[in-house]
């Protein structure tokens, strides 16, 4: 009787063992991915919650008024969580596929050969995708850019709206949303990290008193840097770097103000307005823009100027 039962079970297992094994592997893969995803999500949530708690902010948007480093920790943590979820999904899928093939009776030699074939095919056919993936991974982990940063990627420049594993989305000043493949990004100019400079190249008539004009520019900038509205956005004393260029019609004087990265444009606009008012008070009549050629823009600071 017992022999008959075991014999019947053996016949049943030979018929249904492989499908049941495949089903168990698939279910196990889904459970494993769900568990790992939950763990990653929990870690990301704890990091983000901790940063918000330290910053006393109710949501990520509110962190814009907190130190930039805290905002970047949140965005980086979420991006890294997304990367890890993708990597875990690929690894679990590959392991499940190997187990399924093994259950179906495919020998190890065939598995190795298939893996080699798939690897070669991926290397040839999907090298662009792999390049995008790796470059996106490095950009996230090295914190080259983050959501909300103002960047110059060569072909596209503007505000970063999304950092994906394969594509980074950048919206330019005209509102156009650019989709830039990570593998095609060879340089990243980030205008939102650390500090920036508001540079005013002011042209004045050739016959003007250069010393008096330079002093007035410095006084205007210093007064602005000490005003309550701007004291938090200007992080160093304004400087004049002297004469930038000379022509028959005008002399160009450079005024420089070191600012927080996010405040550069606002500071520059207000500074130009105040400079115009200051030169009006001095009685300086500005030369025609058609006759002025500004040179030296983007050159290194003079000796003694801050790097």
Automatic annotation (TrEMBL):
Residues 204-285 form the Mechanosensitive ion channel MscS C-terminal domain. SUPFAM superfamilies: Mechanosensitive channel protein MscS (YggB), C-terminal domain, Mechanosensitive channel protein MscS (YggB), transmembrane region, Sm-like ribonucleoproteins. It is a multi-pass membrane protein. GO terms for molecular function: mechanosensitive monoatomic ion channel activity. GO terms for cellular component: plasma membrane. Residues 129-190 form the Mechanosensitive ion channel MscS domain. InterPro entries: LSM_dom_sf, MS_channel_C, MscS_beta-dom_sf, MscS_channel_2nd, MscS_channel_C_sf, MscS_channel_TM-2, YbiO_bact. Keywords: Cell membrane, Membrane, Transmembrane, Transmembrane helix. It comes from the Bacteria. Its main location: membrane. Signal peptide: none annotated. The chain crosses the membrane at residues 16-36, 82-105, 111-130. It is found in: Cell membrane. It holds the Pfam family MS_channel_3rd. This is Mechanosensitive ion channel. It comes from Agrococcus sediminis. The lineage of its organism: Bacteria, Bacillati, Actinomycetota, Actinomycetes, Micrococcales.
């Amino acid at each position: 009787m017992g022999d008959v039962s075991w014999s019947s079970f053996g016949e049943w297992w030979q018929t249904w063992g492989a499908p049941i094994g495949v089903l168990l592997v698939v279910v196990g893969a889904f459970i494993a991915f769900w568990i790992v995803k939950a763990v990653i999500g929990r870690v990301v949530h704890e990091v983000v919650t901790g940063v918000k708690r330290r910053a006393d902010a109710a949501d990520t948007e509110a962190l814009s008024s907190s130190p930039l480093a805290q905002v970047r920790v949140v965005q980086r943590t979420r991006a890294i969580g997304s990367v890890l979820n993708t990597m875990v999904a690929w690894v679990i899928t590959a392991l499940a596929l190997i187990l399924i093939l093994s259950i179906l009776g495919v020998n190890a030699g065939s598995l190795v050969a298939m893996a080699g074939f798939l690897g070669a095919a991926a290397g040839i056919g999907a090298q662009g995708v792999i390049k995008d993936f790796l470059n996106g991974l490095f950009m996230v982990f090295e914190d080259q850019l983050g959501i909300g940063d103002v960047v110059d990627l060569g072909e596209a420049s503007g505000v970063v709206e999304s950092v994906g594993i394969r594509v980074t989305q950048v919206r330019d000043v005209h509102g156009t949303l650019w989709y830039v493949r990570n593998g095609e990004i060879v340089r990243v100019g980030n205008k939102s990290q650390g500090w920036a400079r508001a540079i005013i190249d002011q042209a004045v008539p050739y016959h003007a008193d250069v010393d008096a004009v330079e002093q007035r520019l410095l006084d205007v900038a210093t007064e602005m840097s000490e005003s309550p509205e701007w004291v938090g956005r200007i992080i160093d004393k304004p400087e004049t770097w002297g004469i930038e260029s000379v022509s028959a019609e005008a002399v160009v004087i450079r005024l420089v103000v070191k600012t927080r990265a996010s405040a550069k444009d606002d500071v520059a606009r207000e500074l130009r307005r105040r400079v115009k008012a200051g030169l009006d008070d001095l009685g300086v009549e500005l030369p025609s823009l058609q006759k002025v050629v500004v040179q030296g823009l983007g050159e290194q600071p003079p000796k003694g100027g801050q790097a």
